[in-house]
Amino acid sequence: MTELEILRTIQADLAEMRSELATLNRHVGDQDRLLNILQQDTREIRSALNDMARTNLTSREVEALHSDANRLQQGFADLEARFEVIEQAQR
Questions:
Q1: How far is CA 36 from CA 12, 40, 79, in A?
Q2: Helix (H, G, I), strand (E, B), or coil: what is residue 86?
Q3: Which of 10, 32, 81, 83 is deepest in the core (most CB within 10 A)?
Q4: Is the dihedral of CA 52, 54, 55, 56 positive or negative?
Q5: Pairwise CA distance, residues 55 & 62, whole Å
């Protein structure tokens, strides 16, 4: 293999790596946006739960709200874990 062929191989490898990095960057950006949405939803639900504690809700309504909040927090944790995996892969 000549030096020119080696150089072309290296350039092709670098081009592929750049493409993969661009894809990872897009995924990280998407995950980051979803993470921000989930954080905001979590804050809104917590605020709503606190406001509703001052009114007369049935125990079923409170239980349903807590279930929604727990499901949202689980989604947040899952997304955060995926985000960390993507971040580590990017390094």
A1: 36, 6, 10
A2: helix
A3: 83
A4: positive
A5: 11
